[in-house]
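Chain particulars:
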Amino acid sequence: MSNVWDKAYDNRGAVADADAWLAAWQTDGAAFRHTHGSRMRQRRYGGHPREFIDIVEPDAPAHATLVFIHGGYWRSLDAAENHQLAAGALACGLRVAFIEYPLCPDVSLESLCDSVIAAIGDIADATSGDLILAGHSAGGHLVTHAVTQHSGLPDTARARIKRVVSISGLHDLRPLARTTDIGATLGLDMPRAGALSPALSQPDFPGDLLCVVGADELAELKRQSHLLANIWTGLGVATQSHELAGEHHFSVVEALRGPGTALTRWCARLRPGSG
């Protein structure tokens, strides 16, 4: 690492067995598809090879759709590595739609964000009922950016978003512009980083915001999480901010596998502990 900001955002370096976690995600995602393949379909929303959505249906007709966006600092990982995280929401009666998107530096971060906006609009066109947006790490940035005033999200989709859940999300990209690793890959400078930061933008959607982060995550990840909840409260959005005890950057999303966990029930808009 070349400077203090690289270390401050090095999630893999902060978790000793990070590679084992990522390998397990691949294995568990494949196992989920083997079991639930008959309930899955893929839908393309653009011409790029990575512009597609993996949709999983619950046993009974879905009453809402959870849209999930994976992390990887906008430059790595795949939606397929998170398919297993649909289990809890499916058990709560939600449809789950995983957005895949082109990666940097093959595309600009602005173009990547536009792909996600197009995907959310496509999901809205293909479904009925409420939409809940959730994303992990870079995905937390992408779901919160999507509901900002000037994101380009269609009004018909925006009006149906009842909750946004940012899990270990990145909401002010200006510190990342100071890294020699991530910032260089993204080609970020301060003006672009500021323009792409949800924390510096006006939210515009009818739902509420939850920011969730592991209590054992890097200090900058915790700061980023609490930051957005704090700022958007002052901009008219009902917000909550939670640290999950004992969880690091990769374990924090594991709770989505079970229907009774607080994280799953927040995503399903159910009160944790209710029947």
About this structure: DSSP finds eleven helices and eight strands in the chain. The two ends are 48 Å apart (CA to CA).
